[in-house]
Amino acid sequence: MQIADRAHQYYSSACFVAVVSSTDRIDPQEKNVAKATKSVKSAVKGAVKTKAPAKTKAPKSDQSVPHIDIGITDSARAAVAAELSKTLADSYTLYLMTHNFHWNVTGPLFNTLHAMFMTQYTEEWNALDDIAERIRALGHYAPGTYREYAQLSSIAEPTNIPDALEMVRLLVKGNEAVAKTARAAFEKADAANDQPTADLLTQRLDVHEKNAWMLRSLLQ
Ligand SMILES: [Fe+2]
User: Fold this and answer.
1) Keywords assigned by UniProt (predicted)?
2) Residue 46 Cα, ligand 1 centroid: separation in angstroms?
């Protein structure tokens, strides 16, 4: 029997076999069993001493919501959001008025006004989402009820169905009202160094001033 086999029998644990087969080769010509055994013992001892890496606990995830930190103070964000809420209320009121007039316009200018109002209310409708979501990005809730819009809007809604030219006059005033509200909001955004809001309001100013010009031209 080979010396290594004898040593193998002597230490027959699975751990021992693994260590011997992978790391230490015992010379089969070794005549001194004690020497081979000592080598094996040493290997086993080393294997036993080898400890599994210490388990480290994963750091606990932070469950809290991070505070908004975009370089605009809390009070400035609140002030800009309040102005945007007024802009949203005016914009929604103007949108609804324009759509209302699209439905109810009558007279010789029907085709012209019906189509023109549709172009305007479609653009205004799409802009509402941008305004509301900018308020959300600033950390505040966007107004979304008729009650809030009635409180916040500077635009008086008609109580009857105006004739076609009166609709146009009301829409001139409505577009100019949104422009004034957006311009006041722009001043707050500019003072707060809030470029995205200033950019959005600049676009709204451009649209409503252009609408007012086109509508006014129908009356001249
Ligand atoms: Fe329509």
Assistant:
1) DNA-binding, Oxidoreductase
2) 86
